[in-house]
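Hello again, I could really use a second opinion on something today. I've been staring at a protein lately and its backbone has me curious. Please have a think about how the structure follows from the sequence. I owe you a coffee for this, so here goes:
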Amino acid sequence: MSRFRPIDRKTAYLLPPSMEDWLPQDHLARFILEAIEKLNLSALTRAYAGRGSAAYHPEVLLSVLVYGYATGVFSSRRIERATYDSVAFRFLAAGSHPDHDTLATFRRRFLGELSDIFVQVLELAGEMKLLKLGAISLDGTKVHANASRHSALSHGHIGKLQTQLKAEVQELLGLAEQADQTATPEGMKLPEELKRRQDRLAVMDAAKVKIEMRAKARFEQEQAAYQDKLARRQARMAQTGKKPGGQPPKPPEAGPRPQDQINLTDEESRIMKVVGGGFEQCYNAQAAVDTASMLVVTTGLTQACNDKEQVTPMLEQLAQLPGSLGRVDSLTADCGFCSEKNINACKAAGVEPYLAVARQDHHLHWKERFTEPAPCPDDATALERMAHKLKSPAGRAVHALRKQTVEPVFGIIKSVMGFRQFLLRGKDKVSGEWRLVCLAWNLKRMAVLRHKSVLCA
């Protein structure tokens, strides 16, 4: 008698199988489907219903895309294969198999509609008693663009290449004139070689123009900031009657710099310094995370390498969230977001800021951890008052929450979900894809928290 269980792959099912039996009741795919079924997708269904053959329902396409991003399957081709190979994807697709072109087109076409869906998911979290706005942590992370840094050209290097290519064109034209008397190398076709260099010169001319336009816009911004600094310096001198200390602000220089670059694959991405050293072609992805639930409540994306100008846009987005989610009362961020302007913006929005003025020591003496700092002078600046607040035990405790909220979210998105590079190109499309990533994270997080929900009791 055999000790093994019998193997029988030939006998058909006596009764038709049910997809409801394919997955455990607490599976992530079930939760994502239940959540999406509660959303209002009328805007998608109206826009997606076209002519010709029957289309896949937006609910099916959205659910497989969200589950794919939540589990590290981002490519539309891999998602298509998964509808055959994976029980969870087959369950979400209701036994259908949307092709990769359909999935990619749907994702690219409806990125703008994700803003409303993102907010609806937050409202669902509020109904499940998983989200109530209060303390928010803000941070940014560099995510690789769908472009190589080796495809970037600097303004200085373009000039050198143009000189070289123009000399080669003249040399090839000379060979063409002497083609009857001089033998060309075997396999060389002069018209093709000329066209290749002329095409490259045209691309470089266009890239040079774009770099110069960026330099002009940058100069206008720097000039406005320079005039503002001069005005504040003059006002301080008129108020005190003394010449302000320190060096006067340096006027900006017009025109492109030799190191100004543009990427020929995704010209809206930028070279940025990444963690661990080195530089890569990236976007700076922003997220505001609720401290209590670790849900992302607003997203942002910028081409700037630093975070100095990201507080105001995030405050505007937080103010637009539905009132049913509650009210933001505090905003915590690291020293990359700190400036007098951002502190005042938080105050004007009625949000208490906890913006680190400088990097904080990791090994404080126990007396510093449990004693109040010396009183802050009455004439202290906004930055000095912020530094004083974060030295107090209460301020230090609030700011410490940032490291266990927004930073773990980025870590899970990159290391667990595996999202380290955008698939789309262009700032608008990349911004929509980042919102899709954060939407997938929110549903993944809500699936963990759902046992606390009164709706799931």
